[in-house]
Amino acid sequence: MSSYTQFLPSYTVGSEAYGRISDVCRPYGKKAVVIGGKRALTAAKSEIEAALKDSDIQILGFLWYGGEASFENGDMLMLNNAVQEADMIFAVGGGKAIDCCKYVSYSLGNKPLFTFPTIASTCAAISSVAVIYYPNGLMRETYQFDKRPAKHVFINTNIIAQAPAVYLWAGIGDTIAKHFESSLASRGKELSHADALGVTMGVQTYLPLIEFGEKAMEDCKKNMPSYELEQICLCNLVTSGLVSKFVDYAYNGSLAHALFYGFTALPQIEKNHLHGEVVSYGVLVLLICDGQYDKLEELYDFYKKIKLPTKLKDIEVSFEELGPVMEKALSVGEIKHVPYEISGEMLYNSIKELEKYNEEREQ
Fold this sequence. Notes:
The chain is 52% helix and 12% strand. It is built from 16 helices and 8 strands. The chain has a 6-stranded parallel beta sheet with strand order 1-8-5-4-2-3. Strands 6-7 form a two-stranded antiparallel sheet. Strand 2 (31-36), helix 2 (38-51) and strand 3 form a beta-alpha-beta unit. The chain is globular.
């Protein structure tokens, strides 16, 4: 029998989440450097400073991460005196800023990392994987992995409520894929304890979205840190991240993400549409391809309520453009994480059937 170690994240959530910074971080040292996106630093700086005003933790500097989660930006940050002298790193912002800080933390011998998500669009703050890009924004083929996630995650729902609602919206679209992709990818497999736990937990990346998503979106547009908004933050950030921590990489993505990568072959996708938005469309295609028509009806109704895409027109794509999309989608590893072979014909016919389904529902 093999043995393994599982490191799990911890977190604080709520409008006053930053009030716990000193108590949580004090055992790790007295000097911190804050790294993040420009808008994120503007949103969080005063609250972080206020939380540490009477503590013995000193902030050595607030640094912009460079705008891209790249090795180049990470290497640049590691040359900064404040980063070198700091006992710990506070990563502030969205997925790219946090992932860049993960690379810095891992490279510096796992210098203690604490994350402060200012939007709820990905599980980057909770997960231990860092997605790395080239300086021009193209995604690299390699990821940065570590068994250990951030030491603690501070989820300030007041700050997240002030952010543009489109990020929460895209986060819902990406998170909803977690359950349907992990359950499909793992179907018929003999699962380890961790995999089985993660796949089972995945249902909680779906049900809360249906229950609280519409109200959370309304509240975010009004900049209100409500109970419903908090539940969606926990779903998008925490539950999704925990599933990612537990399940094998092979169960972390499937047809919906393969189709997303296919759509990135089209310039309008990269220019005008968010990752989670396009992934959410792929979930509907997955459900048709897999014959889950009861779930298709449920998700379709939910998508219409919060205006997630249900047809090609919603993401500015025509049937005539599907050639390179199919080619790319069928070439990525995620398309193989299904219990049967997916052909181009199956994928095309599923998209065609989804278009027909839209026509019938709109009559």
